[in-house]
Specification:
Elements lengths: L1 H15 L4 E6 L14 H10 L4 E3 L5 E3 L2 E8 L2 E6 L13 H12 L14 E8 L2 E6 L17 H4 L20 E2 L10 E5 L12 E6 L3 H9 L5 E4 L1 H7 L2 H6 E7 L2 E7 L9 H9 L3 H9 L3 E3 L22 H10 L8 E8 L3 H15 L3 E8 L1 H9 L6 E7 L7 H4 L17 H10 L5 H18 L2 E14 L2 E2 L16 E2 L2
Parallel strand pairs: 1-10, 15-16, 15-17
Antiparallel strand pairs: 2-3, 4-5, 5-7, 6-7, 8-9, 9-10, 11-18, 12-18, 13-17, 13-18, 14-18, 19-20
Length: about 500
Amino acid sequence: MRTLLLLFVLLTLGCMADQGTFHRAMSSSPTRLNPLLATDSSSSEITDWIFNGLIKFDANGSLAPDLATDWYFEDNKTLLFHLRQGVKWHDGAPFTARDVKFTYDFMRSDKVVTPYKSDFKYVSSVEIVDPYTVRVHYSQPYFKALSIWMMGILPAHLWTKEKDPMRSPLNKLPVGTGPYHMTRPFGINERIVLQANDHYYEHPPFIRRQIYHYIGDPATEFMMLKAGKLDIGGLSPLQLDRQVGLAFNKHYRIYEQASHSYTYLGFNLRDPKFRDRRVRRAIALGIDRQEIIDLLFFGHGRPCYGPFMPGSSVYPKGFKPEKYNPVRARKLLKEAGYDREHPLHFTLVTNTGNETRINAAQIIQQQLRKIGVEMKIRTMEWQAFLNTVVFPRHFEAVLLGWSLSLIPDAYSIWHSDGDKKGGFNFVGYHNPRVDHLIKASEKIVDPEAFAANYRKIFRLIVADYPYVFLYIPDSITAVSRRIEGVTPSIIGIEHNFIDWKIKD
């Protein structure tokens, strides 16, 4: 079956190949191409080509103009945006302040179900000052006052006609202001064609067409990449080190960067043995992160030592983490009452379907055995793991991961309020100083003052050892050598895609 699928896709690609087309793969069909409703990865990725927000991240990870040209705070609860003039929707209608206000009102509607609504919880109203100026009123100072406006803006002149927004045809054939547009609605497991927007406000993309090919099987996608039928694709460390050769490297350039995610071992801090900080610290010192990275990722990763993104403004400058020290680990365990006659026992639970995590657990098991800790491993199907272990807090330790953001929000994971049914602070972490700093930071609109508070939060969390922060795997991307203009940055390699060119 896989061979037939590969043959079909190869034939399809071969028929469509041309010098102005960029070929990609998607592992699942999108659901709704709407920036307010896109929650799966395929929907979010494609939506980003079609819509713009008022602001965006630049190549350095700083907030920069997009549909807004500039902004300023009139006071710490009032934000004024000046909008870009001359921008047109894909159907030719002009973009104005009406679209911004409509998008905010749309999201607040009872007819719309979206997880992004909570980001706007402190927005009390959006006021149209004139066709190209909007004033946003907040009920309190809010550290996300700016960043929430990276959300894509919808065209009011089209959406006001829709009575059922969740089922609107506009979710299948969207109209935006972005660098690419669609010419027909998408179907399940069908390719998606994106055409360049000739009126894009920056400049029309040099690559005239993108095609997303549905390839549901990762092995088939890798074979397609090796065959040179895709212009971009992700690689695993094993594939990069063991399964590609000279022919592949002649066809592709490899770009490797830290991914925006980390894996951690989390302790149930309600468990008597893990209430002792010495025990948590001993386990952290008894785990050799670099060995895990070398064995799992062939060195394509880096140790993780805290909850925020390395290189970002919230990561403490000059931070020196405690590293692998099995001698010190054994001493701490002995101080806590554990030795060879009375070893520490606990069970680590993680999910099936993620071989990397399971292999990481097995490496950790062997490492901890060397310091006299007996760790058992238990694996469960993902939904059962969440519903019967994680959220009910029925575990001693878990192996999981979180994403990393340039502008993190520590509230849901690290504030004491998150230690509740369904909350993300399922390890039961409580630190009054951290709670205070998180709540105080929510009302800071100055980016550097916010970052200074979060650097303090970082150090306090790390010193408490609620997690053993383990590793940040590398993101490895192959891009066809027929593409020019790739310039990697902290926000990824495709931030300047409209400047990429296909060689003649």
